[in-house]
Design a protein that fits this description.
alpha+beta, Immunoglobulin-like, rod-shaped, five-stranded mixed sheet
Length: 484
């Protein structure tokens, strides 16, 4: 009987070998999937195969593909028994210090894929059905999806090394070998990502900024034991297309709106994100007063209810620039006076425009002045208009002054500053003459107007004297002719 089974087996084995070749039953599995990429780039995806069989496997003609055909990876090369085979997307830089066994193209979907591994005969060797979403792995922490028994766990990536669950099983196996009654190890259960130790990132509280003003962004990172991280990488995304690297950075916005700021902190194989919201409101800092001449100054007023960082802002006049140094601030509801003589920045008399520019060179405000001022006077702001008034550096501007050359003063009027050589009489009625002006212009108007009145009187006196002299001369000549 035994001899019959032996003879039957000798004939049956070659037949089975032809139907089920060694490669078809080889124990090659999809062991780890980094579908979320790495901390360096979400495009740095990689897949690991593992040969847990007793013999080497030639992968020539094998294929690993997604059901939507992207990616489709034609395999080649040898995978040694008990070893790993790593596939990296695009190039061999996805995993530092790990050499790829094969490079492929085509991205895995974040929402999940169906991955199928087939041998050179077209037989399905392994399959991952993640059509409803990847069962493990974390896009934020970049922890990978690792095979654990019959299931999957989320853990720090282990390219070309045993998975976390496999390491634990190996340790358990050593203990199990001491007990002859224990021959197998139960597979590790699925562990949710939130239960794995993680580092933490903190971007700060939500804040409000004004257009053009520099804002400070201070990030914090905490390790697995909630200790402050050292030598971590901090990458800021400000939500307006700009990014910066560094734990503490500054940034300004050109336009109003609400911006989502994301801080990415990475350390070793760990990373974490935190999000804050920045509300950007219109600028309420403007030039409120200017003094021209040798002792020129510019006064800024902050009408907002918050202190504003004006580092990097600048005054611009013709070819001159004055740039505010680092850590320059203007308090809320207050004035800031900048004496310009020591900075080599001068504002000449006459007519011009001084601009206030935000970092980056776009305008925050402009101030037009026109006229000649005297000592103790300056140009003050009222809306978009400027007037000559008594100077009030660091204080609220005074109203324009009025000067009259008569004892009776007409009703006060506050016209705009005009050309100093085009002084105008505001109102002249009978014997009641009043001249309205502003500061130095008022003085100029009074001087020009007074000289004009005195000149008319002097002209009439001379004219009268001239008429008397001519009349006397005429009478004299007539009498002379009669005597002759």
């Amino acid at each position: 009987m035994k001899l019959g089974f032996f003879i039957f087996g000798m004939f049956l084995f070659p037949v089975l070998a032809s139907v089920y070749p060694a490669s078809a039953v080889a124990s090659v599995v999809i062991n780890e999937v980094a579908w979320m990429g790495t901390a360096n780039s979400s495009s740095d995806e990689w897949i690991e195969l593992y040969n847990d069989g007793g013999g080497d496997v030639n992968l020539d003609g094998w294929v690993l593909y997604a059901q939507d055909d992207t990616p489709t990876i034609n395999l080649s090369g040898m995978i040694i028994a008990g070893s790993f085979f790593v596939l990296e997307r695009t190039d061999d830089t996805s995993i530092p210090d790990i050499s790829a066994d094969l490079i492929y193209t085509g991205a895995l979907l974040d929402g999940g894929e169906i991955l199928i591994l087939k041998n050179n005969n077209g037989n399905e060797i392994d399959k991952i059905d993640a059509s409803e979403g990847w069962p493990a792995g974390n896009k934020t922490t970049k922890e990978t999806m690792q095979k654990s028994g019959l299931g999957w766990v989320t853990a720090v990536g282990t390219p070309k090394a045993q998975n976390v669950s496999q390491q634990e099983e190996g340790e358990d196996s050593e203990e199990a070998n001491d007990d002859e009654n224990i021959s197998t190890v139960l597979p590790t259960q699925y562990i949710p990502p939130e239960e794995w130790p993680k580092i933490k990132a903190y971007a700060g509280k939500d804040k409000t900024m004004i257009v053009g003003a520099l804002g400070e962004f201070r990030g914090e990172g905490f390790g697995l034991g909630n200790e402050p991280l050292e030598n971590a990488r901090y990458l800021w995304n400000f939500g307006d297309g700009s990014t910066k690297e560094g734990q503490n950075v500054t940034h300004f916005y050109k336009y109003t709106g609400k911006y989502r700021v994301v801080l990415d902190v990475s350390s070793g194989g760990y990373s974490s994100l935190d999000i804050m919201e920045v509300t950007v409101v219109p600028n309420e800092v403007f030039i409120s007063e200017i003094k021209t001449g040798p002792d020129s100054f510019i006064e800024l007023e902050n009408k907002s209810n918050r202190e504003i960082n004006i580092s990097g802002w600048m005054f611009h006049l013709d070819f001159q620039k004055f740039i505010f140094p680092q850590n320059s601030f203007i308090k809320e509801k207050s004035f800031l006076v900048i004496p310009l003589s020591s900075a080599g920045f001068s504002i000449h008399q006459g007519k011009n425009i001084v601009e206030l520019l935000c970092p980056g060179g776009f305008p925050a405000d402009s101030f037009s002045y026109n006229g000649i001022i005297s000592d103790g006077q300056s140009f003050s702001r009222s809306g978009e208009d400027s007037f000559i008034t008594s100077e009030t550096p660091g204080r609220k501007n005074e109203p324009p002054a009025v000067v009259s050359v008569q004892s009776k003063v007409a009703q006060t009027e506050y016209p705009k500053v005009q050309e100093y050589n085009q002084a105008k009489v505001v109102e002249i009625k009978d014997e009641e003459t009043s001249l309205a002006g502003l500061g130095g212009e008022a003085n100029i108007i009074a001087t020009v107007g007074g000289s004009y009145v005195k000149s008319r009187k002097f002209f009439y006196i001379l004219l009268s004297l001239g008429l008397i002299v001519v009349s006397s001369l005429g009478v004299f000549l007539i009498r002379r002719q009669r005597e002759v």
